[in-house]
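Structure ticket #2291
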Amino acid sequence: MNGGHTAADDRPVRRSPAYAEAARAFRSGNIPRARELCAALAQRCPDAADVWSLRAAIAVAENDFRSALAHIENAQRLEPDNAGILAHKANTLAVLRQFTEAGSAADRALQLNPGHADIFATIGTAYTKIGDHEKSMACFHRAADHAPDSASHQYNLGTALRFAGEFEAAERCFDRTIELRPGDCETWYARSGLRTQTAGNNHITELERRLNAGPLNWRDEMLLCFSLAKELEDIEQWDRAFGYLKRGADRRRENMRYDVQRDCNKMKEIAAAFTPQKLLSNNSGYPSSRPIFILGLPRAGSTLVERTLSSHSDVTSAGELQNFAIELMRPVYVNAQTTRIPIDELVAETLKLDFSAIGKSYVESTRYLTESSPCFTDKMPQNFLY
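Resolution: structure written out below.
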């Protein structure tokens, strides 16, 4: 097969032995072999969009998202109106935190009315990463409508409904997910948290049956124990609830690799570096009144503050945005050419940044979600670090 295929006739590539071997290696998890085969195939068939799409999927599996984006853009150049390619481009851009571009790609994919459950789900996942939960839920609805017997699509829709506060509908989706995929302990855990259980309406017997059904990995055991602890607490069976809570916490503790002192040291480094004097001596920030930052510990009332503020006609809630941290760290990582920087060096490098430029890039990065209102709230708790 030569490289003369056009976007209109490149489908024969999928039937070629070389493509089949590369795809088989990818599906079996032999990623290096899949990469090697697909790279060779791209040399012979540079005008085959399917080959570039597979190369992108292989790069994603290796967490090489920049290469994945380059491959997806090659595929899109060949098939600019392919909704599946656009959907994967949106997802990759979202992973790379290029949210405005990701939103545009997702919008375009949706406009093409793909008519395939997996493509709707991919678009919905991109919207979720961007923070546009209304659009993501609409996409997950369409995915579930197209493939009602898909556990993944039911779970995605249930998660979106839970985020939107539609708990009864979310529970129906999680019920269906568990029916289709009973070993999905993440769904059991999510379902238990949707409402206060009662003595006459709970999942305790089912949960205990699942817990005792056979060998479980530590995470699944933990999730089922936490689910049981929550539901038993709801019906005031305190001793049984505490027993399961301790069992789950023990599994978690045995497998946790967290050092609280490391976080304490990080905050001390930041406080020592960003003194009032150093901040005043640095350049001024970006003069924008659009963002309203809400900071607070969990369960301290920050959500109530957010809802109160966003009830004003000039304020929209953007949720918990990762944008500030991303825009702050992006130039540091670019300058260092690595993301692995000791905390003391990282803090020192951030002091050298142009704060006005950081502020501007942060505000601009939110426009996809916030441009409809003069002001927006950002409730990301970790913003206190920055």
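Closing remark: The first strand starts at residue 291 and ends at 293.
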